[in-house]
Amino acid sequence: MRSAILLTVALWTIAAFSDEPPAGTGGGGKALAARPFTIGPDTTIVIGPVRADGTIDYVAALNQAWSAGVTDENNAGLTLMGAIGPGQNGTPMARLRAAMKLAQPKDGWVVIDAAAHDEYDRVLDAALPWKEADAPAVAKWLKQSAAPLDRIVAGAARTRFFIPMVAPKSGSMIAIELPYLQSMRGIVGALKARALLKLGSQDFEGFRRDIMGAIRFSRLISESPFLVGKLVAVSAEGLANSAITGASTSGSLTADQCQTLLNDLRSLPHSRPMSEGFERAERFTMLDYIQVAATYGPFAAARYIQGDADGAKGAPMDTSAHDWNQAMRKINWWYDQLAAAGKWSTHRERVAAAAKVDAAIIALRTQHPGVLELLMDIEDRTLMTMLPAIARILVRQTQTEQERLLVQISLVLRAHKARTGAYPESLAAAWPKDSEVPMDLFTRKPLIYQRQGEGYLVYSLGENGNDDGGIRESRKDDLAVKAIR
Asked: What is the sign of the dihedral through the CA atoms of 410, 412, 418 and 421?
């Protein structure tokens, strides 16, 4: 899907100019006599590093910003890389490990045993305490993976997360590879499975250590400057949180254990906000593309968009007829709006701000319907196609916040039953008097709580704001926690 979008942008880019590419393109990378844009905080955002051809090295700039304050001692990224397989020669993972000069892990890495796949899926889907006899292949695999999983748990105590951006050959933003993100959910899934196995064996401290390590590591991953990294982080955290909900609703925890987990959750560091993705990484990708078009022309930009960023940098081309400073300022204005939308404190405010951005994009498109889009400035056409789906991202942010509250609510309710023998008739009856009962973050109204037989159902109305009875059949439906007994 992304490739198709980028190809469309590439064709639009070529259509924006009538000049043929200069003869002899395909090498050189020499600077124009005068740079076609001005380096500064309102255009390029960063002022360096500057390449020999006069363009900004955005990959290096992003690495510098992300790695500020990171050391070998506080960097959980090194821990993660030590738990991931080395990858075959020529693969993104192998290239990343080579760039970081990392040796292969001596005591193995986390790779699911093919013989355990079916059992593993059942364990994760059930999200309940289990015993070795319930899934012997998974239990065996977890024992074999003990060393790398223990390293992840220990590494979760670190305070920073950084893995350098590597862009083979070209050093362009669009060529950056993030292979470690593909392994993150698998590692958290393994910790979830092991934690629930320990709880099934009455090892509460082992459960606590593994699941809190998984959640903490997920939040560290949210330091990734790219939106995709932040989305992987919240997905991984949701996987870990489901283990706590399963433990509490199955009656596997005492009141003291519930309180211990509550204290742990409330003391965890906050994850980084989604809006940070718009501040640098996503913005830099767009600015990098624009500076290639400004310096080397539309055909080079087309090759850049299609992934041939190294071949894109041939002989410079005179594109001075276009105001590239204004193009960069326009891009920065849009990304400022996206970042600002994510900083509002409530879901309703964030969605309203996102709706204004969407309306502005629609207005931009309606000014040039159909083939008239080809007459638009290159930056406008690129923005219409490549701006992230801001509303969807902000909804996911609220869902994550709501899921965290529901996990805590499940622990409070289980603790109440452990102490009194029954679930409360209302959330307020169980909630500590020195704090407010959590609200439905989507509606800013009380969560719906129902006693059902010996159990309960508590839920948020979710994205669509409709009462679906606590049933979630699509991503817009209710977010719920249910206990049968």
From this structure: negative
Asked if residue 161 lies in contact with residue 75, where contact means CB atoms within 8 angstroms, the answer is: yes
Enumerate the β-bridge partners of residue 160.
Answer: 75
As a whole number of angstroms, the distance between CA 160 and CA 70 comes to 6
- For the cut 60, the answer to whether the pLDDT of residue 437 exceeds it is yes
In 224-297, where does DSSP find H-type helix?
227-249, 255-267, 276-279, 281-296
Mean pLDDT of the chain: 88
Inter-residue contact 92 to 206 (CB < 8 Å): no
Query: CA-CA distance, 243 to 209, in Å (whole number)?
Result: 13
For residue 3, what pLDDT band results from cuts at 50, 70 and 90?
Answer: very low
Query: Judging by DSSP bridges, how do beta strands 455-460 and 445-446 pair with one another?
Result: unpaired
Residue with tokens 């989604």: 274
Query: Which tens digit of pLDDT belongs to each residue from 398-429?
Result: 999 999 999 999 999 999 999 999 999 999 99
**DSSP 3-state assignment of 21?**
coil
- What is the token pair recorded at 99? 């760039």
The span from the CA of 288 to the CA of 170, in Å, is 12
> Alpha carbon of 402 to those of 17, 89, 348, 398, 458: distances in Å?
49, 42, 14, 6, 12
Q: Which token pair is 478?
A: 């209710």
pLDDT category of residue 468 using cuts at 50, 70 and 90: very high
Closest alpha carbon to 229 in 181, 184, 188 = 181
**DSSP conformation letters of 196-230:** HHHHHTT-HHHHHHHHHHHHHHHHHHTT-SSHHHH
Instruction: Judge whether residue 378 has pLDDT over 90.
Output: no
Looking at the predicted structure, is the pLDDT value of residue 302 above 70?
Answer: yes
| Unique residue bearing structure tokens 């603790």 | 415
The string of pLDDT tens digits covering residues 208-247 is 999 999 999 999 999 999 999 999 999 999 999 999 999 9
Q: Can you tell me the mean pLDDT for 353-372?
A: 83
How far is Cα 372 from Cα 298, in angstroms, rounded to an integer? 18
Rounded Cα–Cα distance for residues 207 and 212 (Å): 8
- Which structure tokens are listed for 212? 């809190």
What is the per-residue pLDDT for 32?
54
Q: pTM (2 decimals)?
A: 0.89
Cα separation values, 16 from 12, 318, 334, 382, Å: 6, 14, 21, 11
Q: For helices 2-15 and 298-305, what crossing angle results, to 10°?
A: 180
- How far apart are alpha carbons 324 and 159 in whole angstroms? 40
Q: What are phi and psi of 202, to 5 degrees?
A: 65, 25
- CA-to-CA separations, 84 to 71, 106, 121, 177, 227, in angstroms, rounded: 20, 12, 20, 15, 22
